Amino acid sequence: MENTALCYRQFGEPESVLHRETAEKAPLQPGMLRVQMLLSPVNASDLIPIIGAYRHRITLPAIAGYEGVGRVIAAPDDAMHLLGQRVLPLRGEGTWQQVVDCPAALAIPVPDAIETTLAARAFINPLAAWLMLNLYPVQGKRVLLTAAGSDCAILLGQWAQRRGAKEVYGIHRSAIHADRLRAMGIVPVAQQDSDRVRSLAAISDLVYDATGGELAQTILSAMRSSAAFICYGLLSGQPFTLQRHFPPMHWFHIRNHFDALTPQAWQAAFKEIWPLLAESQYSDARLLPFGAWQSALADYRQAGRTHKPLLDFTHDTFSSHGSYR
User: Fold this and answer.
1) Sign of the Cα pseudo-torsion (202, 203, 206, 212, in order)
2) pTM of whole model > 0.70?
3) Domains in the chain, CATH or no CATH each
């Protein structure tokens, strides 16, 4: 069967190096599922590898995309019950393509009650938030989030409250996020208000930082040595310098935890995540056809964006909002 994918054969800006390529799909290998993709989101974690940040572990040419949802169209004998079902085809091929092959043991079945637009975004940010809260417990602690309008941060904030955090503060760049954060029980803090940022950093027990750069430096310089700083992203594109008096700092990369998750533990994690995700506030979805991937990338880069752009593999003409079952 023919398959069209967004590929890159060199590292660089995604808009320049990504190209749609159509070729025959290789025969399905033993133990693998074949999944017809429905939706796949655009995340920072999809774009950063294309630029070349992880070139040491990426073999070119490569297919972009790390998550999404699709429907099983072929399966091995021991997974025939998944035929026709929606699954997350994870930890296999890149997901920005029409057909994805993935290990049957690692495909995550999607519960019937979960909207497809939500299922498409159930991996990178939800699993990262769930893992970080397990690694760095928040009960009885004051928590400070950066990039608080992002999908991972809003889940961290809501789930930290469920786990007994004393207070959750969220630093945001755009005022458009303030009311939304407040409705989630997260105290909004303008990034431009340096004095307030420093005062909250000084009383916070845990900081989950996705920004890096000057903001991370400011927070670290104000924190107590008994607190902890967890860095899980560098959205600013800028590093920061550690100094001796800074509190303990922990780097979190979701990929580093995959090897410790057996297929059984992997499936069990999502059994916990699905009900949490269904009960949480999350960004709206905006669907754009796979053929208009450049528009999806431009949409992702909009300042103050409160929605998540999703590549829609079921349409080749421009569409905006929609939902699937």
Assistant:
1) negative
2) yes
3) 2-122+284-312 (3.90.180.10), 125-255 (3.40.50.720)
